[in-house]
Each structure stands twice: as C-alpha cells, then as structure tokens.
Write a structure and sequence with these properties.
The structure is a homodimer of 346-residue chains. Helices cover 43% and strands 17% of the residues of chain A. Chain A has helices at 10-17, 21-28, 36-49, 55-62, 84-98, 111-122, 140-147, 173-186, 202-215, 230-243, 255-267, 285-288, 302-319; strands spanning 67-73, 102-108, 128-132, 151-154, 167-171, 192-196, 223-225, 249-252, 277-282, 296-300, 333-336, 338-341. Chains A and B meet through helix 4, helix 5, strand 2, helix 6 and helix 11 of A and helix 4, helix 5, strand 2, helix 6 and helix 11 of B. Strand 2 (102-108) of chain A pairs antiparallel with strand 2 of chain B, so a sheet runs across the interface. The structure holds a DNA duplex (16 and 16 nucleotides).
Chain lengths: 346, 346
DNA sequence: TTGAAAGCGCTAACAA
DNA sequence: TTGTTAGCGCTTTCAA
C-alpha cells in the first residue's frame, strides 16, 4: 500500500463529532436511541471524514459476514458451454446485493478443490452457501453439512426428495418434459425419441421420467443417453437414427443437445420439422434462436431460479436458523414453472 | 446458528499443546523459528481440535484479506449472451485459488450499483480488483482509483494507451483483425465488409483499426456498426447487402455477430463461403462450431487472459505496490496473441 | 439517551 | 527459540 491517508476509524469520527464511539456506532448501524441533534452531528462527521466501517473488525464481534458463498461444481462441461451459469449468477447477485450481501464465488473442478472449499467454509468467511450442479457422487454436500452452514441447493439434490428440510430450488423438469412430449403427440408424431442429459444429475432423470409419464411404455430403442453437450446430442441422434430410422420426433434433454441432433438430422438428409420434429429444453436464447430451424423448446427462468435461491438463503440467515432446524419453517423445496416456447422445429 | 460447538480458537490450541498463542500462530502461519518437537505437538493439537483460523481476526491486524474483487460492468448485453464471461472467470478463479485468494464477484448494471461498489471497495474487504468490460463513459475506474486499490483491467482502457502504469491485459485485437482480413484477401476477395462491435469499447475500435490497416482506404459503405449481439450482426449484414450487393466477404467483430450475419446472408440467398466469405472473432466454441457453415474465426485465449490478469494483480499485491507507484516495476499492459482458426465459412 | 470499558481472535513487537 | 503483551476497529453490556 502507498502512503495514502489511513482510513478514518470510529474513534476519529467520535472525536470529530464530540461524542463517544458507542454513539457513532449506533448511528452508523441505524439503531435508534440517539437523539436527533446528536445523530445529525455524527452523520456530518462521517461524511466529512469519508468514514467506512471496517468489516473485519465488525465481523470479529458480530460473527456475521454479510457474504454468501456460491459454489459451482462442474468440471469443464456444461457450465462453460452455455450461458446458464451467467444467468443464474446474475439472479443471485441481484438478490444478494439488494440485501447488502457479497457474493463469494467458489469454482471447483478437481478433488483437490474440495479440501480447499471445505477449509474455506469452515473458516467462517461466509454466512451461508448456494450450491449448484451436483452429481451423484459429489462429496460436497457432506463437507458443507459438516461446516454447519445454511445452504440452498440449485436443482433437487439426488439424495432425497426434499422431505427432510434440505432447501433447494428446482425447475419443473418433469412437467416440462411432459409438455414437450405432449406437444409432439399433438403434432401427430408417434415414434418419439428422447436424448437424455447426464443421468447422474436429477434434472436429466426428471426429464426422462416426464418423457416416460406420457409415452407410457416407450421402446427402449427410442431412448439414448447424452451428457448435455452438443457433441453428445449429435452422437445420440446418430445412434437413434441407426436403430429406429422410422422415428418422427425427438425430445432432447437440453438445447445444446438439440442443436447437435439437428446437425445429425441434416447430415442424414432429414428435414426438420417435416420428417422429424425436434424439441429442446432450457430456451437458452443464443442457442435456441440461432439453430436452423430455430428451436421449439421448454423455457425455464434461470435468473429467477438464482434469485429465489438467494432469497431463501437470506431468509434463513435472518432467522438465524441452521439447516438442521429449518423443518417446518418454510418450504424446503421450491419448484419453478416452465413454459413451452414454439418456434419452427416442432 | 444452532448450538454447534463454538469453533476452537488459537488459545484453545495453545492450551492443548501446552505452548503460548504466539507459538501456535507461528506454526499455523508457517513462519520458521519453532523447533521440531514443539511444532509437531502444535500441529497435532490443531488437527485434534479441527482448528481453522478466524479470518476476520487475522485481517483486522494484518490488513490483508486474501480476497480480490472481480467487477463486471455489463448491462444485460454481451456478458450473458456468450460464454466469454464464464471462461474468464474460470481463468481468474484458477489463479486466485492457487494462491489462496478468494474471488468476490461484483456484477454491476445500474448507476446505483456504482455507489455500492465504491462503498464496498472503500470498505477494505479486498486487496485488489480485476475489472472488465469498461465502456467509455464508465465512472468505475475513477471510483476504484479513489479507493486506492491495486487494479488490473481486462481489455485496454480507453483513457490511455497504457503508458502511465495502468495495468491491463488485452487480446491482440488489431493484429487479429489484420489476420482475418488478410486471410480474406488471400482467398481472392476484394469487396470486404466489416461489422464492428460496440465502438465505445476499445476491443471494437482496435478491430476496426486492424481492418483499416489492411484495407487501406475502405469504402465507408462497407463498414457497419453493430454492438456484439447476434441481432445487431443480422441487422448490419442486411444494411451492408442493401448498400453493396456486390460484397464478397465480411469480417464480423465477433462470432455472435457473424452468426447473425450468416442468417441474413442465408435469407438473401447468398451461399457461404461461395458467394460471401465470413470470418468471426473470439472462437466461442458453442457458437463458432454450431453455425452453418462452421465459422472461420480469430481465436483468443479467454481463460488465459483471466489467469494473467489475476497473476499480474497478485504480483503487485505481493510487492505491496499501490497502482500509482507501479511504474517501471513490470509491464503495465500485456497483449495476448491470437490465431486464425479455419473452418468452412472462409 | 449517552458514555465507559470489556473483549471478539489474532499478529507482531519486544523481552526473556 | 519461546512467551508476554499490546493493540487491530468494532459492538455491546452495563452504569451513569
């Protein structure tokens, strides 16, 4: 640091206003019980000195940090391929800053990262955590639980149905999948295939379940597993075409895979939607609108999901409620609605 | 918080190991000067108690936070439309965590946000700042300067050429643009148009300059301003076609605009690359590879850019150097190389 | 309503 | 090499 003037302390403000530190603290923190003429004097001193409270000192005594960790566990794949992530972050950021909380971002990739994250959470830097993109074998939830931090998950956790007070926000994946398939049926399609997402994520499983809800007893040859990437969609589509060249529709687990499927279909000379109708999921604009033809897809409000996660967490924090005690104090799982957006692919 | 056991303090560890607090502190912080048998005893006590230092207490005395603010100033547009942002963040995150620093993310949109950010930076929560996506009229740099925080900018700041010790990392936008246009010339194209990015950002200006470097004295009718979005690319392409129906190539300021241009060209029945060759910029995979045809484009290593920004900042922090004093202590502007990636569009 | 004073958990002189 | 001690800047009883 350079020789810039040292930041003014409470002490300095108190001296200038001719009051005690305690009084300044009260004014700064908005607790009433300071009479008007005095309070005004303090406020002026604060302005004149450009006083900003030292957060470290404050945290030391309050044990609050007004900061929330956002943990994104996604090795390479999806997060960085589509704008999903940025959207969610923005929703979270808006809600947090509206409540004067900071967003500490923790990106994890390797196993090594987990130790680091665990240490960080245990270090008491943040008041709570928001967690994304869990896979079935992820050790993260355990680590977080041990740190005893209030937590809200993005997406239904796989280890339970949300009945034990674990907080999460999810999209209506199953309902959206049903809508998509029903739409295809309404178009007169009967041999409808499904390209699933990575089945170690609940979103992919739920979408598959929705597909099965409507298709009753689908030919197993009409289901192919992907992993949410465009490449996997392309590969899956080829496999499906090889097995069931007579298929007349595809419901892809997300838009990226739908885009891949479109390529495979084009390569095989199938016209979309004439020969094969295609529906995606997510409605990621830069993808869904740019494909040829533009995608009919299931829209979810990603930003709202982020906002809601933050809101739920902040509510718990205000209550001073630890995760284990939160039963009955509010919904533990919130599911956001989706809507089918019709474009040209189906 | 629930009645979870209070976290052990230095004091507790000291008691258990039968030493003083100072000794424990030394061991924990890895300063030598503690003899082996003792050090080992301390380490065991730390493990047994699961001791993790209280960061607030530490910061209070060290005035270090081991945290860096990442400020992204982008109202709506680009950041959330392409995966640029996520990539850069990942690069930053990797470098920061490798040096045990935390990433505090500040997303700004409105003017209101600036006050908040200023307050936050002044509050002394972070040791430095990384700043992105500045536009010419942005008040942010001033606010940051006033907070006296070491800062590294992503992209060349518009207010100077980098001669006064302002640290930044940029892509070789001008050189990349030259490569793109030369490539088109090499293909025998002569009536080459350019769709610019938002000209209140230096990256867009530099790319335009590169275009002009090679085209010498281009027909003004061959240049149209966009804003880095796909929609603007589409619109710009239409305008160009209307003015110069004889054009035989387009260099778009980024891939998203190139994708938009492709749509406009298709709509007008122009074949790519036969009738019109198209080159983009960025090489954002999910876009550049998915277009029809796949894009020839200028690749920049976004993740490396993020990593480098973090590295530069950390170096300044280690030196305890404030931005104003940093002249001559290292490069103030670093420019990363680009490479032309050939696909099918040119 | 205001002030005095104790202490949050840690580091860093300084002494031993 | 190890321990003692004085704060870092703030909030929060408790007394006045």
């Amino acid at each position: 640091m350079s020789e810039s003037a040292p930041r003014p302390t409470l002490e300095a403000v108190a001296a200038r206003a001719g009051v005690s530190r305690a009084t300044v603290s009260r004014v700064v923190n908005g607790s009433d019980g300071v009479r008007e003429p005095l309070a005004e004097r303090v406020r002026r001193a604060v302005d004149e000195l450009g006083y900003v409270p030292n957060q470290a000192a404050r945290s030391l005594v309050t044990r609050r940090h007004d900061a929330v960790a956002v943990i994104v566990a996604e090795p390479e794949t999806r997060v960085f391929a589509d704008p999903f992530f940025a959207r969610q972050l923005r929703g979270i950021s808006k809600e947090l800053t509206a409540h004067d909380n900071q967003l500490v971002l923790l990106l994890t990739e390797d196993r090594d990262d987990h130790a680091r994250v665990a240490r960080y959470l245990a270090g008491g830097h943040v008041d709570g955590a928001l967690v994304f993109s869990l896979h079935v074998d992820d050790p993260l939830p355990g680590l977080i639980q041990r740190a005893g931090l209030p937590t809200v998950f993005g997406g239904r956790p796989h280890w339970n149905g949300g009945e034990d007070g674990v907080r999460y926000v999810d999209t209506d994946n199953r309902g959206g999948a049903r809508d998509a398939v029903r739409h295809l049926l309404g178009l007169g399609r009967r041999r409808i295939a499904h390209i699933t997402g990575a089945l170690d994520q609940t979103s992919a499983v739920d979408r598959l379940d929705g597909f099965r809800d409507v298709m009753a007893d689908p030919d197993p040859a009409l289901v192919e597993e992907g992993d949410f990437t465009a490449a996997s969609g392309e590969r899956a589509m080829r496999a499906l075409l090889a097995r069931r060249p007579d298929l007349d529709a595809v419901f892809a687990g997300n838009d990226l895979m739908a885009a891949g499927a479109l390529r495979a279909l084009r390569e095989h000379g199938r016209r979309v939607p004439d020969d094969v109708a295609v529906v995606g999921f997510d409605d990621m604009l830069p993808i869904a609108e740019q494909t040829e033809p533009p995608l009919t897809t299931v829209r979810q409000d990603i930003e709202e999901m982020g906002r809601l996660m933050a809101r739920l967490l902040l509510r718990d924090l205000d209550r001073g409620t630890a995760p284990a005690e939160s039963d009955g104090t509010g919904p533990s799982g919130v599911v956001l609605p989706v809507t089918l957006v019709r474009r040209d692919s189906a």
